[in-house]
């Protein structure tokens, strides 16, 4: 379904910002069957791998006339650069253009004010770079069914997509999944550090931690069992895992720390949105 939508796009998909996330999305679109000649990229510092796509038909830094009728503009610039960049991008937006933003802490109202168009606000995360991201999106009231379907296909090119109706949820989404990879990387970092403290050589501790976190994540991805059940399946009564979980699940434990961490990130997202 996603591939069919991408293959049937007739207008221009304008990507504003081709950094790591924007570049990953572009790669996913082309792999999903989007005609490179339907893509235009606007970025003052285009990486060589993106420049190379010009040979396939991707248009780089076009003016408004060369870009043609922009069906969807995907805004992937850094949030702190949006006010400056958005004023320039507005010239590409017509009353028929949908604007899909993947900028953290940037509200639909701000996007409508700066760029115009029918706005979809989305929050992806960094595993999108390997096609394993998850994105949560919310659409403004004037986004049509067709525009939403195109936005879904463009976002789904880098992983799974969930839609919400309440924009107010996006701050918590940012805290859980947007920032979430950093929490997992911290787990691997601290697991390795604890292994060294327990007497393991640093290289071995690092290898064990990385592979354990990565493998457990893949098991969680492939299994239909709840994460709590998977945890219980590893835990023998009175065993080593139970001893460690007694610390992690004690008072105060990981649950309390995570609640506080998510609350702090959610609050910061709200502050940035203002």
From TrEMBL:
Its main location: cytoplasm. Pathway: Amino-acid biosynthesis; L-proline biosynthesis; L-proline from L-glutamate 5-semialdehyde: step 1/1. It catalyses: L-proline + NAD(+) = (S)-1-pyrroline-5-carboxylate + NADH + 2 H(+); L-proline + NADP(+) = (S)-1-pyrroline-5-carboxylate + NADPH + 2 H(+). It is found in: Cytoplasm. It is an enzyme of class 1 (oxidoreductase). Gene3D superfamilies: NAD(P)-binding Rossmann-like Domain (3.40.50.720), ProC C-terminal domain-like (1.10.3730.10). Residues 167-272 form the Pyrroline-5-carboxylate reductase dimerisation domain. GO terms for molecular function: pyrroline-5-carboxylate reductase activity. Residues 16-105 form the Pyrroline-5-carboxylate reductase catalytic N-terminal domain. It holds the Pfam family P5CR_dimer. Its EC number is 1.5.1.2. SUPFAM superfamilies: 6-phosphogluconate dehydrogenase C-terminal domain-like (SSF48179), NAD(P)-binding Rossmann-fold domains (SSF51735). Transmembrane segments: none annotated. InterPro entries: 6-PGluconate_DH-like_C_sf, NAD(P)-bd_dom_sf, P5C_Rdtase_cat_N, P5CR_dimer, Pyrroline-COOH_reductase. Keywords: Amino-acid biosynthesis, Cytoplasm, NADP, Oxidoreductase, Proline biosynthesis. Belongs to the pyrroline-5-carboxylate reductase family. PANTHER family: PYRROLINE-5-CARBOXYLATE REDUCTASE (PTHR11645), PYRROLINE-5-CARBOXYLATE REDUCTASE 3 (PTHR11645:SF0). Catalyzes the reduction of 1-pyrroline-5-carboxylate (PCA) to L-proline. This is Pyrroline-5-carboxylate reductase. It comes from Bradyrhizobium xenonodulans.
């Amino acid at each position: 379904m996603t591939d069919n939508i991408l293959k049937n796009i007739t207008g221009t998909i304008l990507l504003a910002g081709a950094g790591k996330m924007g570049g990953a999305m572009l790669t996913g679109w082309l792999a999903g069957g989007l005609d490179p000649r339907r893509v235009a990229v606007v970025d003052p510092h285009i990486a060589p791998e993106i420049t190379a796509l010009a040979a396939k038909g991707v248009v780089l830094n076009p003016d408004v006339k060369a870009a043609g009728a922009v069906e969807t503009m995907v805004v992937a610039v850094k949030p702190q650069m949006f006010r400056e960049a958005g004023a320039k991008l507005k010239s590409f937006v017509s009353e028929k253009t949908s604007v899909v933003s993947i900028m953290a802490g940037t509200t639909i109202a701000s996007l409508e004010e700066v760029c115009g168009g029918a706005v979809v606000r989305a929050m992806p995360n960094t595993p999108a770079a390997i096609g394993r991201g998850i994105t949560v999106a919310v659409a403004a009231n004037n986004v049509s069914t067709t525009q939403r379907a195109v936005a879904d296909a463009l976002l789904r090119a880098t992983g799974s997509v969930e839609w919400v109706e309440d924009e107010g949820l996006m701050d918590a989404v940012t805290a859980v999944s947007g920032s979430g990879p950093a929490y997992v990387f911290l787990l691997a970092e601290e697991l390795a550090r604890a292994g060294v403290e327990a007497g393991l050589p640093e290289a071995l501790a690092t290898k064990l931690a990385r592979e354990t976190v990565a493998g457990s994540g893949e098991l969680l991805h492939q299994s239909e069992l709840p994460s709590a059940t998977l945890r219980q399946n590893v835990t023998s009564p009175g065993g080593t895992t139970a001893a460690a979980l007694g610390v992690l699940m004690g008072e105060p434990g990981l649950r309390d720390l995570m609640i506080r961490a998510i609350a702090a990130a959610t609050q910061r997202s709200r502050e940035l949105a203002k």
